Amino acid sequence: MALKRILSNRKLVAGSLVVLVLAAMALAAPLIAPPQGDDPYVIPRDGFSSTPEPPSPGHFLGTMQGQYDILYGLVWGTRVAFRVGLTITIGRALIGVIVGVVSGYYGKWSDALLMRVTDAFLAFPIVAAVLVMLTVSVDYWGLRLGEGDTAIVWALILFGWMQYARLVRGNVLVERSSEYVAAAVAVGARDRRIIFRHVLPNSTRGLFVLSASDVGAMVVTVAALTFIGLTGDEPTADWGAMLKYTRNWIIAAPAHALDFWYTYIPASVAIVLFSIGWSLIGDGLRDVFDPRWRSLRGMA
Amino acid sequence: MVQFIVRRLLVLPVIVLLVTLILFFLLYQLPPERRAEVYLPSMRPTTSAEERERIIANTIEHYRLDEPFATQYVTWVRNLLAGEWGYSPSWDEPVLQGLLRRAPASAELAIAATIPSIALAITLGSVAARYRGRSQDQVIQTAAFVGWAFPSFVFGLMLMNVLYAWLRWFPPGRLSVWASPIVAGEGFRSYTGMVTVDALLNGDLNIFWDASRHLVLPAVTLAVAIWSLLTRVMRSSLLDTLGQDYITTARAKGVTERDVVNVHARRNAILPMISMGGVIVSLLITGVVIVEVLFSYQGLGAAAISAIMNADIPAVVGFVLFTSLVTVMSSLVADVMYAFVDPRVRLF
User: What is the ipTM of this complex?
Assistant: First the structure.
């Protein structure tokens, strides 16, 4: 029944297909684009000419300034995207679930305190959180500016769990006042057992919808922050870094403005597909599992 | 009403306290020599490197930067309240002054993006809800989905490639080369710091036209995401409202469907949009920073990014504090406005 509903949801099917294709590309990276050095995330270069070269048999998607192979960066960048998106989302969800459960289950002063803390974290715009984490991360000052990636991931986790916490707290509040929990309390079950066996498994409503759309959104955010210069200057196999590296060719002189489209379109398409794929999954999951939306669809 | 606002105002200091605590806790992880920069007086350092080291050592001693967390935190907050936000070496001016001087440019961009987005979201969201499931609804829903899922900065890159680099319609930056001296000059009075508004107040239509042309691309890039989000909110909220009993009553009285939506339902459906004020401002701040760098628009965001590139801690800390206070204040304003238009909220 559930499977049939999932398969009949066009958004969910389309989104899953896009994400699966990208995942296949990430897994097959060593086959599609064999690494040439020790570090597979360093894009191999073919010469030192500063003018990008259009697609050719040797470089299917062409090269960027400095003859860095675009296809290579695109393929290995897919791995980076999945790693970054999933790490941030899982980190956010973990913190959010812990805060939400403690807040909703224990209530009283711990709830009041945790919810004010949640409000306080919500006060930091994403970019402010990232700037703080960049400022205080020791690696950042010890090494070059280029080591900012880790700090950005941490910033997005530590300042991004609030929606999850509010969601889980709301769910836990409902479950806690249900009769089966009262029954569990009555037979003398401990808090730990009630939380892990009863409340938590029933409090995941909406969690996967939020997580799915977050994976795409986080990759976009990291790419945007990379693009504006918060990480290194080298064109590593990372979609945001590739766009940043090729920025000058996007605003070339009018006569040649469109000549270098191949330097930025591939990485742009990759980011767009990744983002839209996960958003489709998120929307689709909501349609399938949220009865309110389902009935609206049925009425339409 | 008054009671609700007072209660809401009482939470404000708690949130601000927590915000500053979180920020200071993170800063506290830095060695004292680095943190000392935040405490330097708001004036231009005219000294040599050795002199600077001595000053830093003095600052550490004076502000007891090797003392426990609580003592340091209190000193820091006391400084902030006195308007001492430190001196920014990369901006070459006091941090607070630098923030306030650049804020209007960013606000101008944010407003230029938000007002059309809100208007368009209300109209198109209403159309989508009224024609639910029909072709109008499907087109608007698809547009809103794509607008939300499509990465703004990639969209901005494409706009820049085609509309600036190729066609030369809309230039990046904030003003053309010929216009900047006029705006900075004697004859042009700065009332708000927003060039388009000031140009109109000065009666200089050439400047207004030039500034507007520069605003178009960054504002459109920012507006897409805001519009998509608000359109989705507006559509689902209007759908909820249209299911209410009083709407059925209106229809039963024979009110036309157009009036049902425009007169009876829409006003109530706008409420959820107001409650999103804080979220929107927070999104806008991040969006403005990215868009400013993308289009070389000289505002607060671009200045913050150049500050971090120069390891300018006082400016970065000032920016973070400033933007988070703006976010806190806007969610407060949103809550109060919500209570003002929706009497039910006041009961809680």
Answer: 0.88
